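Internal ticket - ligand job 134, cobalt (II) ion:
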Amino acid sequence: MIKGIDHLAIVVGDLDKEIDKYRDILGLTFLGIEVVEEQKVRVALFDVGGLRIELIEPLSEDSPVSNFLNKRGGGIHHVAYEVDNLEDQVETLRQNRIRLLNPEPGKGVTGSRIVFVHPGDLSGVLTELVEKKK
Ligand code: CO
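stdout (structure tokens):
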């Protein structure tokens, strides 16, 4: 079951510069920075009205978000839904022939487990499913 939106992710080229804008000009609550080695990204976390905004900067050219940044110069990258049970949700997608980019759950921020759904099977939107650390 999907419980709500966990976060919206925005890819940026210069994380420190963008943090200043989101924190000091937009006034979002800055929660901190995490490096997700598995995805080769540095992530700045913000809270706005209980919703998390993540700014994502690739750490290397072979990061999954490098292509996106090079092609589009950044922008909204994916929407992430929080689910209560990742395996159940993945099974439902499989039964409905909706493809996953990583069938085996990977590691997200704050110890969460994540899978990405193929955008070609879901409205052209890269969609992440997140099960929070229990
Ligand atoms: Co995400």
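Auto-summary: The chain has a mean pLDDT of 95. The CA atoms of residues 80 and 128 lie 4 Å apart.
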